[in-house]
């Protein structure tokens, strides 16, 4: 028998599980041994060996290897072995960098791997969906992705979108009835839910029938394995730039070689020098270092509680000019406490803080007992029946499982002495119309002990008010007259103006067929019962974060489903509204075309009473005005806006799988402050990449120019090939990596956001590369000429001096690269990785120059202290000559 044909109870037996307790830990181990993990087999990745060899497939490296092989055959053993060793070490370094980049990308994937809610040993727990085994009981709700193939055992208004499997994008309604037909297509299995499909409505329970490659999705897994490109715009731009740089390096090398040959150097030496120069000057390691810098930045972001799901977002983050943030939970704490009740013209205040269910009720100074006061008793008990939240205690701390709004209402009823369990003895809940952000309400159909059925609805007060025909007032049912309407609205306004989130409760008696009616036919003609007003304190750190964003040229916009006045009051508290920024309501947004919205959107700081679909309009309008928009969201309906935003941000705690999958950034703590931190980090990563691009290219320009000028001036070779390769490996390698780990400049969040289409060499970087590179080349050449004149017959001496000058000039210049302003603008020892990289480069250089064993390999000789003075003096020039302009305030 197939699972869809079976009765629920038979499946429980068949899979040897228990619907109330779930599987036990012991059983799970046994089952796992048999069936393995719940994962789809991945396509073969590039093997390590292949990755290693791919490091040497660069054309110039191959030419160099061929050349050294020839020189080896010609008897130049030491040279050829040394060059090969350096090429090998370079390759190992490249391999290591690429592995690291790949591994951290893999780790990223793991972090954003889906989780499921499962019953184990009698408790609901969240586990990675990889750990699910057949027989597990899963619980899911709107916004969740189903973690395995399950047979449904409970379905409340459950609708699932199965397009990934069936191609049908209209969600399918699900139930738990066995299907007895002979042949059933996947699309018709109404009592099954399949791995990878998405719950769009309602909630349900299911028992896992198959996992991994045995699921319906597993059977078509091969079709689904599409490699998502993780390249960022900068990486693409660098790739293009790389091609230009390669051509330029080759052209210049050709020039060096041709001039050298014309000047009478022997062909073979020039060829080897030329190839070495080309290998050194081509920044082949750049893409890998960029990836490493990006992924290290991503790891730093994780420490700050932001998970980057798509690498390009790291760069875009630095360009963000507007953050559109949800209010509840992101700007506020989402720890709600009911402080006010209103019913029939009377306002009751409630004492107590947080979720601690202890507190009293007062009208003015007078204590009241809500259970003795019918309207308030009804307001609280109906709020409790239409409620999914649970109060849990852990080490004397109270917390809420479920929606905090409902949690607050639950705690208020507990304070009055109501218990859900005892209420459920008198009332049976027959059906639920779940909450959604568009309707802004939720209802249940209940039957009381006398068999009378009625609908209880709770939701946004203006929505409930508009659906109410009557009101419970002075112990009587009364028609909602103009006068009473006015009173209700006044109460709503008053609570909202005090920054309270307000929920209205209403009810309606039903006839016996009511349950079969469509919900829009049910939620009307209500009787308004009252209001519960709850505080949701702002997160303490957000005010400062909003201020810092403003200083960084980033505007914060609050988007909320809450009442306009509640939103406005909190926006004031957080400094989001400072002057005459506008507040727009969802109803106005609905009437506006995107074009009309564009005209005002930049002046609006708060959007209140919005539905998720308005978010898309807001994103579009802002983008049309040239903004780079970060947009937060958590629900299924937020996904289109999250996708459309330049930086889509999903909530890690309250966010649904759908929102997370659409996002490029997930906030582990749902906190606005984390967005700010991620933006700061995004800006820093970009600046660090600029730093090492500047360093590497200026170094390369220096290396090429010293050779070129020497050839033009008919001088001997200032550097031998192995020295050039050594500089490429040591001096260029380590410090560049350390620059990638640099701390942000103090002013990184004091500048306007970068333009997204800004070129790599913008803001004077190109000039810096050329000018510093030119100077590095020049001082090396001067050192060489000077030493050559001093030691006429000792070319290796002059070459060693030139080598030391080039290395030192680069190692001093690297400190200049830390700042956009000047080497003097920052403490040069602020980056300890860099200090260590420089120290180790210097030690290696001294070893190469002074160790008798290494001297023949690197063609070096010991040089005198006097010459070191010359070397240090000259090599400081490129950095400090131009640093002077910093004081004149015209540093480029
Ligand atoms: P944000 O500020 O992040 O947009 P929000 O909670 O205001 O969050 P929604 O969750 O879309 O936005 O809720 C919209 C409105 O629906 C709320 O302002 C509230 O009036 C009402 N509401 C929220 N939760 C519930 C609930 N569980 N049951 C009934 N009504 C609710």
From TrEMBL:
Bilayer topology annotation: Multi-pass membrane protein
Record domain Cation-transporting P-type ATPase N-terminal: where: 2-76
Family: Belongs to the cation transport ATPase (P-type) (TC 3.A.3) family. Type IIA subfamily.
Iron listed as a keyword: no
Membrane-spanning ranges: 48-71, 77-96, 244-262, 268-296, 692-714, 720-741, 769-788, 794-812, 833-853, 868-888
SMART domains the UniProt entry points to: Cation_ATPase_N
Location of this chain's protein in the cell: Cell membrane
PROSITE patterns per UniProt: ATPASE_E1_E2
Name under which the protein is recorded: Calcium-translocating P-type ATPase, SERCA-type
PANTHER family, A to Z: CATION TRANSPORTING ATPASE, SODIUM/POTASSIUM-TRANSPORTING ATPASE SUBUNIT ALPHA
Domain of life per record: Bacteria
Entry keyword set: ATP-binding, Cell membrane, Ion transport, Magnesium, Membrane, Nucleotide-binding, Phosphoprotein, Translocase, Transmembrane, Transmembrane helix, Transport
